[in-house]
Amino acid sequence: MKTLGEIIKNLEISKSYYGSQIIKNWGPYKGLKIRGITENSTEVKDNYIFIARKGSSFNGEDFIEEAVKNGAIVIIRESELNPVESIPGIIQIQVKNIKKAISSIAFNFYENPQEKLFLIGVTGTNGKTSVSFFTKTLFDLIGIKCGYIGTLFYEIDRIIPAKETTPSILYITSLLKEMVEKGFKACVIEVSSHALHQDRILGLLFDVAVFTNLSRDHLDYHENMENYYQAKKKLFTNYLKPTGKIVISLENEYGKRLAKELKTLSPLCVNNNEINAKVVNIKDGLNLKIKIKNKEYESSVNLLGNYQIKNLITTLGIFMACEFEIKEILKYLTFLKNPIGRLELVGEYKGAKIFVDYAHTPSALEEALKSLIPLKQNKLIVVFGCGGNRDKGKRPIMGKIASSLADEIILTSDNPRFENPLEIIEDIKKGINYKKPYKVIPDRKEALKFSINILQKGDVLLVAGKGHETYQEIQGKKIPFSDQEEILKIIKGLNKNECGN
Predict the structure, then answer these.
(1) Which of 73, 146, 367, 395 could be bridged to 139 by S-S, CB 3.0 to 4.6 A?
(2) Domain match, 326 and 365 both
(3) First-to-last C-alpha distance (Å) of the chain
(4) 122 closest CA partner among 67, 216, 65, 193
């Protein structure tokens, strides 16, 4: 617990009230014991501070009454308090900037854990999960205990399901506090464009900031690629320590542009002529020749997907920027594995391999399919859809990519949200080359059954779009659904039937 005085120190307060009375003397209130802080009224308990923040979907001020019923004794808000909104026995504090207030309150309550950890922030359209996962794994392997906050989950000494890629600064700080208490020395955080645009991580400063790439995604939110790029750029201009290091992958034009615009900050550029890798052989993983400036190294990694080469080199760039001996890091590459849902080999049936990948953008789908082409001895089949209430413009692009690289296509649902799945599929079909065989099966479970049933020896099946996700988002509800679990159930059932016959 902390006292209210400790928590609100340095807070820019406009007005404050105890019930309907303006607080002129904080003396009687500073000693109040505060048990916790939250922005979610349902999480409030006795002696909590409730932060009534206006979000993109909800206004926290609409839930003040519920928060008080649940035990909140202090309300932080940005709008002016009307006399009719006063609540007997409750302190309400109006602040000038709610985002700055949340950051200040979080750091005070959790004792500035961000200052006690080496922080690495990774942003980009594709690859940030793999780069973050590889970095965390390598830090652990060399004896530096490292946490992870990102798309897959949040990891301390335990795994916490991730509600969003980059949670609020309040939740991040609580996780960092726990890491400090458990002896962690570093943490890798995936930083989304939404979090950057919304200043959701205000107050965090990173020791290393990393850019993987940028391609079409989230245009339903950012509206255009320039806005999307500028949001990503904020990681390097707003959230880097004065002594911080920058690592930029030059795998596409946006990386090259960012490197040029941040030239005065001396970024370490990778996936260029000086620092890169190429595949020498593909056999149970990748055999690589890694070039780092004027030196070459050979390494074998148990990774699937040629696109992981760029992610691996970006990861090595992080350790180079931190001035680790690169030969020491290379020793541990054989222990790396693909993260869950990133070209994950889930099972085999009739001599065909079945992979699950999170690819839900045009470039990610293209990279995943290209990576699997060398593994096929017969057909490459893809099952995919597109998310509802998101960027509609990418749907025909993904249809075109699928029909240019796969031999057969099954179109299905992928988090349709509030849209009609058939209308989403119609958008995808606009880009399909009708010379390639395709089938529409809106029910994802049925689509998986059909695609596995038609497999022949030497085929490769890619189930794309959901990766690590364990739900289907339909009409505002998250219905439990895991591609991996369904695939394994289907294979088990088919094998059982064959044995019975």
Answers:
(1) 146
(2) no
(3) 65
(4) 193
Same-domain status, 284 and 319: yes
From residue 237, give the alpha-carbon distance in Å to each of 107, 201, 232. 21, 13, 10
- Closest to 330 measured CA to CA, from 293, 289, 371: 289
Diameter over CA atoms, the chain: 84
Is residue 369 helix, strand or coil? helix
Do residue 448 and residue 385 come from a single domain?
yes
Q: Angle CA(401)–CA(417)–CA(216) in degrees, nearest 5?
A: 35
Contacting residues for 28 by C-beta, under 8 A, at least 6 apart: none
* Cβ partners under 8 Å of residue 190, min gap 6: 122, 123, 128, 129, 132, 149, 150, 151, 165, 166
Write the CATH number for 456.
3.90.190.20
Domain that includes residue 306, residue range: 113-335
On whether the CB atoms of residues 204 and 172 are closer than 8 A, the answer is: yes
**pLDDT tens digits for range 374-387:** 999 999 999 999 99
| Residues 316, 305: Cα–Cα separation, whole Å | 17
Q: Which of 300, 335, 370 is at the close of a domain?
A: 335
Same domain, 87 and 164: no
Q: How far apart are CA 453 and CA 455, in angstroms?
A: 6
Question: Is this model's pTM higher than 0.85 or not?
Answer: yes
Q: Are residues 196 and 230 in the same domain?
A: yes
Q: What is the DSSP letter of 42?
A: G
Helices (H), 239-356: 253-261, 307-321, 326-330
For 33, the token pair is 């014991």
Kindly report the CATH number assigned to the domain that includes residue 42: 3.40.1390.10
Residue 303 predicted with pLDDT over 80: yes
Q: Please check whether residues 20 and 98 belong to one and the same domain.
A: yes
- Alpha-carbon distance of 43 to 171, in angstroms, equals 12
Nearest of 147, 152, 123 to residue 135 by alpha carbon: 147
Q: How far apart are the C-alpha atoms of 22 and 32, rounded to whole Å?
A: 17
**430 and 489, same structural domain?**
yes
Element of type H or E holding 222: helix 219-222
Tell me the per-residue pLDDT of 136-175, one tens digit each, with 9 for 90 and over. 999 999 999 999 999 999 999 999 999 899 999 999 999 9
Nearest to 251 by CA among 268, 233, 271, 232: 271
Backbone angles phi, psi at 7, to 5 degrees: -75, -35
